[in-house]
Amino acid sequence: MDKDLKTNQPIIRYKNGSLIETNDYYVTEFPLTIVVNKEEFATVLCSPNHLRELIIGFLASEGVIHRQKDIKEIQIDDSKGFGRVTLNIDIDHLKKQSTKRMIASCCGKSREFYFQTDMNIAKTSQAQFTVAPEKIIEMMQQLQDQSKIYQATGGLHNAAISDGADFFIHRSDIGRHNALDKLFGYCIEARIPVRDKLLLFSGRISSEILIKAAKIGVGMILSKSAPTNLAIKLAQDLNITAIGFIRDDHFNIYSHPERIQTKS
Hints:
Its main location: cytoplasm. By secondary structure, the chain is an alpha+beta fold.
C-alpha cells in the first residue's frame, strides 16, 4: 500500500527578524531495495507511491526487461522497503555488460552514451504527430496545477505522459528519474504504445533525462526549465523534439521543430 508523500513536522521559521514556532510539510524519502530473481539488484531512493510502476519502469530502463510478460511476479513489502521480482527470463548476461563510457555511431552522426545499456535501449523516435503551441502551454500549466504535493512541500519532481491532447497519467517523486520510470512502468503494464506520446517534465532536461525519454520511446519532451547542450545534441540525433522554458505565453524549441504546428 502506498505511504504518505508528505509529513507534517514542527519547524522554526525566521521571518521579519523573529524566530517563530510553526509546522511545515516535508516530502517523504523512502529506500526501496529491488531484488531480482533472489539477488539484490539496486536500492532506489524514492517517494513511496506507485512502487510497482517504479520497479517495472526502472527494470525496463536498465534493460533487464523489455515487456510485461518478462515479469512472473512482483511482491512489494513496503514495511521493510523491499520489492522482490521474479522474472520469466535469465539476466546473467547483464552482469557481463561493460559500464564504460562509450561512443557509438548512428546514421553518420556521433552519439555519446555513458553506459552500454543506454546505447542498447535508447530509441531513435519515429513519431510523426504534431502539437499546437497553445496546447503545449496549456499542458504545462495543467502539470503545474496537478502538482499538489509539490505546492505543499516544494520537494518533488513532476511528470506526465500525454497524446498531445490529454494526460494519460501524472506521477510525482523526489527523484526525477523515478517520476519518469513510474510513467514508463505504467505504460508497460497498461500496454499503452508510446511512439505517438510526449513527456511533460518539471525539471531541467539533462542528457540523462533525454536518454530516459528515448528509452521510453516518446517523440517529444516538454519542460518549464532549461536543457543542457549534450541533451540538445542527443535530442537532435535521436529525432526527439525538446522544448524548454515553457512559461506564460512562450517557450523555446531546441530540436526538431517540425512537430510544432504553425498557422502558415
